[in-house]
Design brief:
Number of strands: 0
Structural class: mainly alpha
Radius of gyration: 20 Å
Order of helices and strands: HHHHHHHHHHHHHH
Largest sheet: none
Number of helices: 14
Helix content: over 70%
Number of domains: 1
Length: 323
């Protein structure tokens, strides 16, 4: 009998730890989406000042790299990181340069031809891309409740995209298509990042990705007039770039990688939380940028997006309580 009681206590403790880990992963994902939602209007502000997208991206990612290096040095994990980096050299190179860097380069060129609100909305195609990629690559079939939630979220996003005549504006089609391509690459990044983040430290993966991104972008930026562009930046510009690099890229990417490392949560569930991005992005764009206005379609669309996230979150909470 004592042994049985001890086993029950042990099982209860493990279930509690399991549930806490899942809740932490969802919380980190939500925090990440809030930061990423604010990134769109701030990025639009910088790009609209005629700063070359490659130079801007190189500066932003350099701040992100400094954040990650500082974290690894502060926690005294440099040697462990280096061993992981050698083990996964080519995998990290692919997700760092071909997926992460490419998605941002395309996105920043695209934002020159569309609005910040449009980009925040189109970013939610990530959810659909991730579902398709997971099914094609890993034969992972989404649940019915997830598909239902995704449809509600998609309807909300679609409502926001349309104008008052329920048509998509042709003025932003080029930027919108580039943004769509950018988030296809980002979806590939999520899928392949998850594969390595499950078996390796998320902190190490994040640092490695930023090393490869900066390895590509910093030298490339000098060909786009890095020195001349830097001279044009004022204190506010540097503050915005620092925020985007340290918080929206460095801290937020670290949080999201930690969330992706939880193998008990499907990556499409985390991608679904990305529907929060347009909600945050739209309201911050209205507050910070001129010409971005609130209307009934945006309000109703945002409500539908929040409902879709609430449904999937409620289902996960009930599953945790049953355990």
């Amino acid at each position: 009998m004592p042994t049985s009681l001890e086993e029950l206590r042990w099982l209860k403790k493990k279930f509690r730890e399991f549930n806490m880990k899942k809740r932490t992963s969802y919380l980190l994902s939500i925090i990440t989406m809030i930061f990423w939602g604010t990134a769109f209007p701030f990025s639009k502000y910088i790009i609209d000042k005629s700063i070359n997208p490659v130079v801007f991206l190189a500066l932003r990612m350099s701040f992100a790299l400094l954040f990650c290096i500082g974290y690894i040095l502060f926690t005294k994990q440099a040697r462990k990181w280096f061993l992981m980096f050698k083990r996964n050299f080519w995998h990290l190179l692919i997700i760092g340069i071909m997926l992460y860097a490419s998605s941002y380069i395309i996105q920043y060129f695209g934002v020159s031809y569309t609005t910040a609100i449009n980009q925040t909305i189109i970013s939610n195609t990530t959810t659909f891309f991730v579902v398709v990629l997971n099914f094609v690559l890993y034969r992972h079939k989404p649940t019915k409740i997830f598909v239902f939630s995704m449809i509600i979220g998609f309807l909300g996003v679609l409502l926001i995209m349309l104008n008052d005549n329920l048509q998509i504006s042709s003025e932003t089609i080029v930027g919108d298509l580039l943004t769509l391509l950018a988030f296809f690459f980002w979806s590939l990044y999520i899928v392949f990042n998850r594969k390595i983040s499950i078996k390796e430290s998320p902190q190490f993966v994040t640092l490695s990705v930023f090393i490869w991104v900066c390895f590509l972008l910093v030298p490339l930026s000098f060909g786009f007039g890095m020195v001349e562009e830097i001279k044009l930046l004022n204190f506010l510009d540097w503050s915005v770039i620092a925020y985007l690099g340290l918080i929206c890229s460095g801290a937020a990417t670290l949080f999201y990688t930690i969330a992706l490392s939880n193998e008990d949560i499907p990556s499409e569930n985390l991608a679904l939380i990305g529907f929060l991005i347009p909600v945050v992005g739209i309201f911050t764009s209205i507050l910070l940028l001129e010409g971005e206005n609130l209307n009934w379609r945006i309000v109703v669309g945002c409500i539908l997006v929040l409902i879709s996230v609430f449904i999937i979150e409620s289902k996960n909470s009930r599953n945790s309580d049953k355990n």
